[in-house]
Design goal:
By secondary structure, this protein is an all-alpha fold. It has two domains: about 90 residues; about 120 residues, Tetratricopeptide repeat domain (Serine Threonine Protein Phosphatase 5, Tetratricopeptide repeat, Alpha Horseshoe). It is built from nine helices and no strands.
Length: about 280
């Protein structure tokens, strides 16, 4: 009885509580429920972020592997391209050497072709019963007729040029001039043709024939304007003109060398020649 009366008293007191307190209690309970829901959502969001981070890490690792593979492929391709470039350079150099050799062979063939008419023709066989002691008529050379030019069969451009240069070094200037003139006639397109023409001028000047030397240097400038011997031809032409007493012509030759080829040795020597000529003027 006492317990029942106590419970009844508690219920009566609860019912007697004011209405605002009961409403506050319900709001508190709702807030607690909302907080628990937010906590659960936060935990789920954290799990999702963690899973996303793992996926990003995995993707980054895959991208790194792919990038490394791409760099390796690019390096291999670059190495192959470099090797191909080296092979092409070697092929180009060998092709140039082959072209040079073919050009030399063409010039030698032309020399042989030009030399064929000068080769001696064998005499026909003597008929049976002919007197072997009878002398065959020998060819005669009329007055004013030049003897036949010696055959140049078998001479390569370099060998023919070197033979003329050997005569020049030995002081045989007439022979050297003949050799270089024959060289130019036989191999007019050779790379050595400008030098051969230049050394004709050198031989003429060494022999003391300044007028002929100037003519030879003029041929270098006129016929081979792109040759590397042109600056030297201008300078040496000026020297020959100075030696012959034509200082004004020498000055013009040296001015051409200084103006056209200032950084060459010939241009610097020509500048010294101009200073020397200027110093001789009153």
């Amino acid at each position: 009885m006492r317990y029942a009366s106590t419970l009844a008293l508690g219920l009566s007191l609860l019912c007697a509580l004011p209405q605002p307190l009961r409403a506050a209690d319900r709001e508190h309970q709702q807030m607690v429920a909302d907080i628990r829901m937010l906590q659960e959502q936060s935990q789920q969001l954290a799990l999702a972020i963690s899973a996303l981070s793992e996926a990003v890490k995995s993707l980054s690792a895959k991208l790194e592997l792919q990038g490394e593979a791409a760099r390796k492929v690019a390096a291999d391709q670059k190495l192959q391209i470099d090797n191909m470039g080296s092979d092409l350079r070697v092929i180009r150099e060998r092709s140039d050497e082959t072209n040079v050799r073919l050009s030399s062979l063409d010039q030698e063939v032309e020399a042989l072709r030009a030399a064929i008419p000068t080769l001696p023709v064998p005499a026909p066989p003597e008929p049976a019963g002919a007197d072997p002691s009878a002398a065959s008529p020998s060819p005669t050379v009329t007055a004013g007729q030049t003897p036949p030019t010696p055959s140049i069969a078998g001479l390569s451009p370099r060998r023919m040029y070197d033979q003329a240069f050997a005569d020049y070094g030995a002081g045989q200037y007439a022979l050297a001039i003949q050799g270089w003139e024959a060289f130019i006639r036989t191999f007019p397109t050779s790379d050595l043709a400008p030098q051969a023409q230049f050394f004709i001028g050198e031989s003429q000047q060494s022999a003391g024939r300044m007028v002929e030397a100037v003519t030879a240097y003029n041929e270098v400038i006129k016929r081979y304007p792109a040759s590397a011997t042109v600056p030297d031809a201008y300078y040496k032409r000026g020297l020959a003109q100075e030696k012959s007493g034509d200082l004004e012509a020498a000055r013009e030759s040296w001015q051409a060398a200084v103006k056209g080829y200032p950084d060459s040795d010939a241009g610097r020597l020509a500048k010294q020649g101009l200073d020397r000529v200027a110093a001789r003027k009153p």
